[in-house]
Amino acid sequence: MTSTPLACESQDLSVVYRDEPVLRHVNFRVPTGSVMGIVGPNGAGKSTLIKAMLGLVKPLTGHATFFGQPFGDVRKRVGYMPQSASVDWDFPTTVIDLAVMGTYGELGWIRRPGKAERARAMAALEMTGMQDFASRQIGELSGGQRQRAFLARALVQAPDLYFMDEPFQGIDAKSQQAMIEVLKDLSAQGKTIVIVHHHLASVLDFCDHVTLLNKRIIASGPGPETFTKDNIRMAYEASDGAEAFLAEAG
Amino acid sequence: MSYILGVVLLACTTALTCALPGVFVVLRKHSMIVDGISHAVLPGIIIGFAIVGDLDSPVLILGAAVTGLLVVLGNEWLTETGLLAGDAPQGLIFPSLFAVGILMVSMDFQHVHLDTHVALVGDMNLAAVIPLTVGGVNIGPEYLYVMLGLLLLNAGFIAVFSRALKITTFARQFAEILGIRTRLLNTAFMFLVSVTVVAAFNAVGAILVISLLVVPAATAQLISTRLSVMFALTAAIAIIGALAGFWIAYVLDTGTSAAMAVFYGVLFVAVAVAERTATRLRRNRHQDVKSEETSATLVRSASVR
């Protein structure tokens, strides 16, 4: 299909929760350097796809590779931004501490984060416009600030491939703008980004590739040619949100 | 060393030994699992006592701690089957094990005479009776040195694995992606908690140990924005509570462990109320400043007009 090397791909990935199939034989390919949006209705298995690829959920069938290798061999090249709802916001940690956590993977057990690590964390906070909140406890942040703090942690990891699970959920316009700027920067540097997204109207604002998912892959490829009315309708099976969007889009 | 000083030091050491792992127990929201452990180790302690004949023996402590792990592992297993939701698996496992322990106690299993009262709330004074003598000099209760050893073990484990514990507690998925073996770490940590519960059994019993483990950390969490601060406050609260508990028990001529648990509870309520009040005052002041700003702007715009 294309000669671009793949940043990651899944082969025949199926996931079952109890006896409920969540993903069915998914072959998902992300070309290196692309910004890939995964869209689909609630319960389509968008987060599960990411989690199964990263080994957080055990798949029933299939496997995933990253830069042609199993995940265990290339951990350091992969960054992950969790869904906001999965974070314990009461945990006693500050924004700068959170960003420093991005260095834990390379530090190992013995070495402690020092000045260099804090400087890197601070630089990442500046990139996301969070430097003024460095000493705040994470629970004291607004929704958008929280996401920017987690984006900073992912930046500190300096991976080649980013996975972001609903990074724009519940955030203000200013935070969204700040984050999109960072994403564009990363993309310009040749990084690959996979974003789970649920807001149809804004997908093509920052994604050059789109995957429509509803337990199986409906369509996947370059944005405009994949994100068609027919494909959207097929993925959403006449759900209200998609109908409204399609009506608006004419 | 005088007997009184021995009891005071034992109270402080036991409090600190329990409170340190308590920080992660509270942050992981595992308080009730620890309650389960503290009940489930009872049959382990009795069987161990029947074999070894000494409640302070490290062999008994490690052996009985394995019974505590049954709660942790059984809980994980039952949760994964998806047959039971929430904390039902816990409620299923530990009462059965505790009941086995109670049956053993009441039936004088293998002629073990364990006072039911001591099994529940312990006896700090009794635990400090046997002294350790080195070269004919009494250097304090033997049990104190068991707890000191465990304190070092707990502090060492937490120091070495602090970052791994922090990140698995705060963001388990992120930790797994970094390649931390979260499950192994959790099992190791819960085993250490189980060991701590068994070791403290002698002094504070099966029921009150949960208070020593959980309440200092829970109190510290109310006013901590950083993990290091939370650890420092937890340690301070543990020691203060041990001293206060000892003093209250001394004056009222009652059990040290119970007095400590009551003091911790009162301190928690006091800190919670103070924290709430401070937050409210801060918010009000913030609003005052805001409304002043608004009125200043209004005045300014009015004067411009």
TrEMBL record, chain A:
GO terms for molecular function: ATP binding; ATP hydrolysis activity. It is an enzyme of class 3 (hydrolase). Residues 8-240 form the ABC transporter domain. GO terms for biological process: zinc ion transport. Pfam families: ABC_tran (PF00005). Keywords: ATP-binding, Hydrolase, Ion transport, Nucleotide-binding, Transport, Zinc, Zinc transport. InterPro entries: AAA+_ATPase, ABC_transporter-like_ATP-bd, ABC_transporter-like_CS, Metal_Ion_Import_ABC, P-loop_NTPase. Its EC number is 3.6.3.-. PANTHER family: IRON TRANSPORT SYSTEM ATP-BINDING PROTEIN HI_0361-RELATED, METAL TRANSPORT SYSTEM ATP-BINDING PROTEIN TM_0124-RELATED. Belongs to the ABC transporter superfamily. This is Putative zinc transport system ATP-binding protein AdcC. It comes from Cognatishimia activa.
